[in-house]
Specification:
It is built from seven helices and 14 strands. By secondary structure, the protein is an alpha+beta fold. Strand 12 and strand 13 form a beta hairpin.
Length: 276
């Protein structure tokens, strides 16, 4: 039997290996320069103005490496986020909405010069140079890294609650703070439709959701009660258009920017019926 200390060291090494990219995963590629490691405090040193877009999704650390094969270069970075939801959130924020998401981990995309995917709490991105089609090499590294990283491959459950009819493809996103531009709605999902924008925000409990609902209604003027789920109100706003908020248990949800001729309460009711 191995000593407990040895087992712990071995387990830590496996965990580290999973989140650290390795050029040797694909034959013909060698590491170029030292490996990279960044945490929240020094991420700005690596990506300057783009760091904030990582930090708002609960960025913890990044391991990276540069790989070369002939004249081709791949820059591979694996970011560890606060959890699987945040990893998917940063993936959704960085994906190309014009290209379908592939089933790589929780979701991924491979383009001629760029590949990204999210699996469990990790967000993986690979950038290729020079300007040519590197799809084969990118796909090989993505497959190897996806196999190496263990954990969640299922999408966050709230994504499936949005009605699929007329849902704009690749439009569901996790907003990490101030959903709809409202600070009271700290974090949630938004989905785009031709007839408006649906949103779902989870609070810790029904009681906390009720408190936020009360504050929301106090923030707006001339609201009208609506019969949706546990409680609801509707109103017109200068920026959010025709809008309906409702609460169902610990979830706050609704529709904003409802198109002309759409009954925002009917839209909200359809969404409410899909929330468990």
């Amino acid at each position: 039997m191995k000593p407990v200390f040895a087992l712990l060291v071995g387990s830590g090494a496996l965990c580290l290996a999973a989140e650290a990219p390795d050029c040797g995963l694909v034959p013909g590629w060698q590491q170029h320069g030292p490996a990279r490691h960044y945490v929240a405090d020094n991420l700005f040193d690596y990506m300057n103005g783009n760091a904030e877009g990582y930090l708002i999704y609960g960025f913890l650390q990044m391991n990276g490496v540069t790989c070369k094969s002939g004249e081709a270069t791949l820059i591979i970075d694996i970011s560890q986020m606060a959890g699987a939801e945040m990893a998917y959130g940063i993936f959704a924020a960085n994906r190309d909405p014009r290209i379908p998401t592939q089933k790589i981990g929780m979701g991924g995309q491979i383009q001629p010069r760029r590949a990204i995917f999210a699996k469990d709490k990790y967000f993986v991105e690979i950038a290729a140079t020079p300007e040519m089609d590197h799809s084969a090499a990118l796909a090989a590294f993505v497959a190897a890294l996806e196999r190496r990283i263990e954990g969640r491959t299922a999408l966050p459950e709230m994504i499936a609650w949005f009605p699929p009819e007329k849902l704009v493809a690749e439009s569901v996103r996790l907003i990490p703070q101030s959903v709809l531009g409202l600070r009271l709605l700290k974090r949630g999902y938004v989905a785009e439709y031709p007839h408006g924008k649906a949103f779902i925000v989870a609070e810790a409990s029904a009681e906390e959701a009720a408190t936020v609902m009360e504050k929301l209604q106090a923030r707006f003027v001339q609201t009208e009660p609506a019969r949706v789920a546990d409680e609801a109100f509707q109103f017109n706003d200068k920026y959010l258009g025709r809008l309906c908020f409702f609460r169902k248990g610990r979830y706050l949800a609704g529709y904003a920017n409802a198109a002309q001729g759409q009954d925002v309460v009917v839209l909200a009711t359809t969404l409410s019926n899909r929330i468990p």
